[in-house]
Automatic annotation (TrEMBL):
<dbReference type="InterPro" id="IPR052936">
    <property type="entry name" value="Jasmonate_Hydroxylase-like"/>
</dbReference>
<dbReference type="InterPro" id="IPR007138">
    <property type="entry name" value="ABM_dom"/>
</dbReference>
<feature type="domain" description="ABM">
    <location>
        <begin position="12"/>
        <end position="86"/>
    </location>
</feature>
<dbReference type="GO" id="GO:0004497">
    <property type="term" value="F:monooxygenase activity"/>
</dbReference>
<keyword id="KW-0503">Monooxygenase</keyword>
<protein>
    <submittedName>
        <fullName>Antibiotic biosynthesis monooxygenase</fullName>
    </submittedName>
</protein>
<keyword id="KW-0560">Oxidoreductase</keyword>
<dbReference type="Pfam" id="PF03992">
    <property type="entry name" value="ABM"/>
</dbReference>
<dbReference type="InterPro" id="IPR011008">
    <property type="entry name" value="Dimeric_a/b-barrel"/>
</dbReference>
Amino acid sequence: MSDHPVEAFEPPYYVAVFTTVRTENQSDYRETNARMEELVRDIPGYLGMDHAQNPGGLGITVGYFRDAEALAQWRSNAEHRAAQARGRADWYRSYTLHIAKVERSHGFTRTD
């Protein structure tokens, strides 16, 4: 996990915003999450990911994709689908997924 946000890309591109509240059962979660991060990097059109979690357990992951095809490829990946099923069965108390097309993007970095 990085302490810097993913850079602002030239629009349009897509974001998948995955917001979760986890259960107490996190057996194999870290290993599966690491595998998902490894797999998604191989998707042509994958741009990066931001993740944050507060002490109360609310987690937000934002995945960035160049186009809808890249996002669809990730959604249909067999290992990803299996991890989704495991998440519903074991790891998540609740989650939401929002998909959006980015029409405006900019960033700032302090240079002192």
